[in-house]
Amino acid sequence: MIQIYGAGVAGTFLYYLLFKNGYRVSIFDVRKSPDCRCGWGIAYKEARELYSEIEVNLDDFILTKPEKVVVNGIELKNNGIAIFDKLKLLKELWEGIEFKKCEAKLIVDATGTKREFLPKIANDRLVPTLQFMERHENVENIYIHFERHGYAWAFPLGEYWHIGAGSIFENKIPELIEKLRLKFGFERKESVCSCKAKIRMLPPSKCRPFVHRNVVGVGEAIGCVSGAGEGNAPSLKCAKILYECIENLENYESRILTELKWVEREQRFLESVLRGLPAIHLLFRIIPHESKRLVKHSILDFFRVFA
Ligand SMILES: Cc1cc2nc3c(=O)[nH]c(=O)nc-3n(C[C@H](O)[C@H](O)[C@H](O)COP(=O)(O)OP(=O)(O)OC[C@H]3O[C@@H](n4cnc5c(N)ncnc54)[C@H](O)[C@@H]3O)c2cc1C
User: Fold this and answer.
1) How far is the CA of 18 from the centre of ligand 1 (A)?
2) CB distance 170 to ligand 1 below 6 Å
3) What pLDDT is stored for residue 304 in this prediction?
């Protein structure tokens, strides 16, 4: 028997992969129903392929595929980000599950930033975020206001938008959101929901151990979040790797560190920037990779954004 704790994007995906392939598996979440707490951006191609393995058609949940990503006023071509209704998708997946806690040989820690079952991480970096859902009629692009310590975003969801920000300095978050509003014309509106949450910004290698006694971690619990704060597709990928290693966990750590090396690289870049260390050499690997899977940009664009 395998017991999963945490039914976010990683836990639910892993549950269905195991269940559909004949494993005895149980899942439990402390929440009664899923909540939003995410911008709902996703790397479309990767996620669509992964979800198809549990017979979920991601297209049924896509709200929009914005044409451009506008960062600090610089317009970039969106190559692969779609906005999906994560709440609806999780609700549908939860409908097929009865949450239970069972005696199990293996426990999966899919509790995200909480990392409730694996040993705590020394010098963990949990970055605070704040997000609102508001109605706007702006052109359906993704808008970003970037600063060294964090960034604010506006993600189109159809008639509503997610407007939010995250920063290593919590007190700077309102200011980041205000700057985004001014720059891109999102006036302050009544919010239909708002949430405060944290996001783990550490390279996966610093979130070890991934396996401890009879507990194995998956998703954000083991740092599968990119330097730009993208955790949905990386957490799905991580869950797929765990599924493939479930009979032989010795290979799990090395597979995560190899197959999600790009996440490690982006987090290393971020860490170097925060510490004021040289990091430009990392951009020569990061930019081509991100241009292919998410947003088309160049080293020149990078410097224009921060000019
Ligand atoms: C404001 C914000 C915006 C974001 N926007 C994006 C975005 O646009 N695109 C993107 O790719 N990523 C985004 N991310 C990151 C992304 O949401 C996460 O990385 C991703 O959801 C991680 O998935 P997970 O399943 O590992 O963890 P989670 O989605 O956090 O799920 C963990 C689950 O564990 C449950 N849990 C906690 N403790 C326990 C316990 N003791 N027992 C049982 N269950 C427990 C929780 O209730 C939760 O359901 C954003 C994050 C934030 C905070």
Assistant:
1) 20
2) no
3) 85
214 Cα: distance to centroid of ligand 1 (angstroms): 23
Ligand 1 atom nearest to CA at 11 = 25
The closest of 69, 84, 63, 117 to 9, measured between CA atoms, is 84
Query: For the chain, what are the domain ranges?
Result: 2-305
Q: Would the CB of 46 count as within 6 Å of ligand 1?
A: no
For the chain, how big is the Rg over CA atoms in Å? 19
State yes or no: cis peptide before 156, omega within 30 of 0: no
Q: Is the CB of 11 under 6 A from ligand 1?
A: yes
Which residue, chain included where needed, has tokens 């189109």? 156
Ligand 1 pocket check for 267: Cβ under 6 Å: no
288/267 Cα distance (integer angstroms): 16
| pLDDT value at residue 303 | 81
Q: How many helices (H) and strands (E) does the chain have?
A: 9, 16
pLDDT in tens, 104-151: 999 999 999 999 999 999 999 999 999 999 999 999 999 999 998 999
Q: What homologous superfamily is domain 2-305 in, according to CATH? A: FAD/NAD(P)-binding domain (3.50.50.60)
Q: How many CB atoms lie within 10 A of CB 158?
A: 11
Measured in angstroms, how far is the CA atom of residue 159 from the centroid of ligand 1?
A: 24
Mean pLDDT of all residues in the chain? 96
pLDDT for 307 beyond 80: no
Asked whether 6 lines ligand 1 (CB < 6 A), one says: yes
